[in-house]
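[job 4417] fold queue: 2 targets
>>> target A
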Amino acid sequence: MRGQERSVHNELSGVVQGASVQAAVVHGGLHIRTGGTAEPQPPWQLPPAVRLTDRTVEVERLDRHRALAAQRDHPALAAVSGLGGVGKTALALAWLHRLRPDFPGGQLYADLCAQAPAGPVDPAQVLGSFLRGLGVPPQQVPDGVAERAAMYRTHTADRRIVVLLDDAATAAQVRPLLPGRSNVTLVTSRRRMSGLALEGGYQVHLEPLSPEAAVELLAVTLADDRVATQPDDARALVGLCAGLPLAVRVAGARLAARPRRPITTMVRALTAERGRLDELAIDGDHGVRAALDLSYQGLPREAARLYRLLGVHPGTEFGGGVAAAVLGSARGGSAEGVSGAGTGPGTGEWPDPGELLDVLHDANLLIDIGEDRYRFHDLVRLHAVGKAAEEETAAERVAVFRRIADHYLATATRAERSIDPRHPLRERSYGPGPVITEDFGDGVRAALDWLERELPNLLAVIRRARTTGEQDISWQLADALGPFFLRRKHYDIWHTSHAEGLAAARELRDGPAECRMLTSGGQCALGRGDTANALEMFEEAARLFAAAGDELGYARTSNYRGLAHQRAGRPDEAAELFAWAAAELRRCGDPRAGGLARLNAADVEFGRGRLARAAEDAAEARTALLTADDSYNAARAATLLGRICLGDGRPDEAERWLAGALSVLREAAAHYETARALDVLGEVAELRGQRELAQGHYREALDLYVGVNRPGPADGVRERLRRLDEAGPSGSGAGG
């Protein structure tokens, strides 16, 4: 029925959150059912594949292992080991991309960072990312590794997916990341993963390329006739590269940029470089290091500088904004608080960071991962770090990290303002500059998506800043992420970042900063259901505000303390705190926060059944919030007024309040509040005998409640739907 289709609202605006799923108005292929959410889009996370040379035997072995596992209805687990630069990831990507038609459930990818300076990635962090990629709302991701692993296996049991766990450190790091049922997992590592034997792990050790295959790869890289006309020199060159594909590509890229140069010149240079490295007793990957040294020496001056300074970047991937910040250039981003922006030392103007990134990519020193973003091969990153240590002073490396951190802080602060213009913002402190702000677009969604994409880098900066004496960056960046976490609910990363920020604020002995970290950390704990810890943090912040004589801060914290008491089932304490905060916040000049406290007080009174008092408080709160241009929270107040009117036997008035609130809440993607409005609209329709309309509202509300992990309200809606289903059409009235 057309009317019924409208009632269930085929706009699943809050069922699946985050950048991994697009779910606007959907026509077909989607089923809304009681007790479930919309099926998310499969994740396709594998990086692009590169051309594979002479790995036929290994691919056939992997195919046979997969076929045997399928015959036995077992998961297929294989581990590819070998030297750095031997092509483990290239083999893994080429093979797994071939399997896509047989595994429509998606592809999951994680770089486990065994060689990263900061150490291997925590499996809990990877599991959180995988679960969100599989469509699990952040609020539903549990805290512990065991709980996350169990949920992960559940969500992969009925899918057909492939998983790539790249650069693993140990079998223990891998085990929690193995999916459920008959899926395919491929692990790459420098070491053999014999510890995975109990899980059925099949070992594939990758040797360097044969001379013939390495020469073929060199010919493809050069794309001219030099290999054909200089075959002996070509064989000598790939021999010096030890048959490692990374070394061959790097050496070939340098020759390709010099089409008139014979291969023998590279052979002489690489022979000398290998001899130098052998004298330094570097073994294992010296063929790659020699090729990297020669390629580095052939770079233009500014490209070489960018290469080594990118080694200071603490994250795993980057784009033009980071490159501009590394160079101290105002090109590629806008500059805030710039000192000396626009001119380069001895050049007259700054080089374009994007062009320099292209130079490094053409030299096979960067991997293009799409959308103008790049990352290093782990050996190349270590080489860049080494060059920075050799050629840059410690002071310059510190300055480069500060510019990188300032870039992230300035852009995150801009995103913070876009998401919540009314979020109290303390003046940010930056280094000497220039400060480069990335242009991520306009609007709340663009800001949220930029922060989502950069979250691993932001957390890496927060952590490193504490250890390098840049504690002001650590707490300020954690502070800027507050509105993002309130929307996207990444509770594990929220908890980690604000714990780091709190420690940094305490090391600085910055009382106001400590209070901000305590308040935000308390909100995180409240969202995770840890009411006792939340209250403890709010009360500690209140003590600090009181000791500093900050009446406004103390009043704001009293509102949060009231929320903790309300969640803990202590309405008397909550009501007292809300009433005091509402009056005090108005007196201190923050009528918006006063309106929020009054709204919280109205909610407590409604729960006590004091409808007249609740209506008075909610109406005054709504007026104050509209005056403060806070339409979202004013809509929350309207929803409460609708609930009050329904409880008082005035369904028509309730519907007017709720209909007005619903459009605002949908626009704000406020999933829980949207569900509450729909829930009450369902009750209004049921009271009028509009059975199908009521069912439509309830079903959408249920999907939203489940999506934001609110089991109590969800159970209530399930009970109402069960009652309507049992009553059947004969139980419905004429309708209005």
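>>> target B
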Amino acid sequence: MPESKSKFFIPAVGAAVVVAGSIAAYTYFKSPSGGSSDALDSAKVVPSTALMATYITTDSQGWAKLQQFGTPEAQKLVAKGLENFNKQVFSNSNLSYEKDIKPWASGVMIAVLPANPVKQVQLNVPSGALNVPTNLQQKPNILIVVGIKDKLSALNFANKLKSEKGVKFQESDYQGQKIIETTQNGKPTYSVVLNNTHLVLAPEKQAVEKAIDTFKGQSSFASKEDASSILNQGVDVKNSLAQIYVPDYAGMVQQLSAASPQAKQLPAQTLTQLKQIKSVVAGVGVDDAGVRLKAIANLDPQLNKFQYQSTPGNIVEQFPIDTFALISGSGISRGWETVVEQSKDYPQMKQALEQVRSQLKFVNIDLDKDIFGWMNGEFAFGAIPSNQGVLASVGFGGALVFDTSDRKTAEATFTKLDILAKTQQINISNRNIGGKDVTEWQIPRQGALLAHGWLDQDTLFVALGGPIAEAVSDRKNQSLDNSDAFKAVTGSLQKPNAGYFYLDMDKTKTVPLINSFIGRNADTITILGSIRGFGVTATSPNKSTSQLEMLLALKPNTVK
């Protein structure tokens, strides 16, 4: 982080706190402040026009919980990083976060406000110049609200800051409130203390003025109907670190997109898709398994076309225990029908689908019936380590497994694909693996490129690489659902669900191709060494609600 950016927060905070009182007010400031500020209290001074807000807790309980995880090497690396950050922020200063800020600052809310209206300006452009800007865009405003839980500690910090060099303060009045302009390295920051309980600061003066207007009675983020509902709703995570609130998802995307330098007007069809999501609330916390994120999207049931269906999760049993990555779900055929239906509103998408349909018809394959029509049950794609045959250079292969109630159509499809492969000079052979008939596509001197067969009456598999076909068809070891890593990463995720995304970090690091992307950076390897795995799932209890849960499973700290 550049020093000029990392240090702006500190003098601005101190300057604003200075105006909260003086040593003469010692008795008042020594009195308790009535508890730490929470998200709802902070939102009361955020203008109702805010596009979104994030509330970060400074309560040490959640952050301390993180110290229970990580290898000794990772703990040292994190500690070193925090120490360097502290030195960078407070360089050439007698201040420190632990002694001077932590005692009085409670939760921090960061709100994103719409960009200020662009004023028409006279541009001095040479005659005949090209690419004259027709519109000027500004970035959305950032507004920060910091709760003050200990007024005396805050005042002591402010007084200590007065002795700092290189910081200039200038006061101005707005509706009876003193706004402090803090300038360091030529960059101003504006701040104000409201009711001695909240510090408000922003890089734009107008954002602070709007917060004062809100404090004086104008509509706030907390009183806005959509925002109020998700503020009260929240997300239930243990040892919460942060909560995120988006009251109007489509409106936020539209305004942020319009503020982009490369802004293009969003198509009407895209806006319709975005409007399926009314609002979003998310939370990040720490529990015994690691860092967990939960998000809830409130949907418009009239616009939501997707029909959610939970999966029994039995498909995981079809994968060997050394599978290091997995994506599972159900009802590909229903999802495809939804895509086809929605493509009617997107001319380019519809045209692309028609082109694919036409090309497949030349080889006697019906895209809708032969490819997607029979995929009506559970499915999963898994990555499995292997260093044999065509997989030797990459270190792993993949397997697709499908449950279907239409075996006849599925068999007919693969018969067509086998015939097509023969026309490309690929040898088609059959062999028995573990009592199962498997068809392989053979490449000279490389072995099987692809294999497919039936694991039972209703379960079809497609394997990339002969060794993967053997691993799936003739499992000599336990299945993935019995893996300690899989249980640790997915066992605490909500059930029933729509399926999983699963990643075993320890096994992933042993794969040559993936290892090459990780590189030899010691710090990266150390951090990854503290991660056990990553899991994601989703549920939808009704057509108005969609829920997402992610877990970054961490290894316990073994330092005594």
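[job 4417] complete. Note on B: Confidence is low (pLDDT under 50) at residues 1-6, 19-37, 119-125, 127-136.
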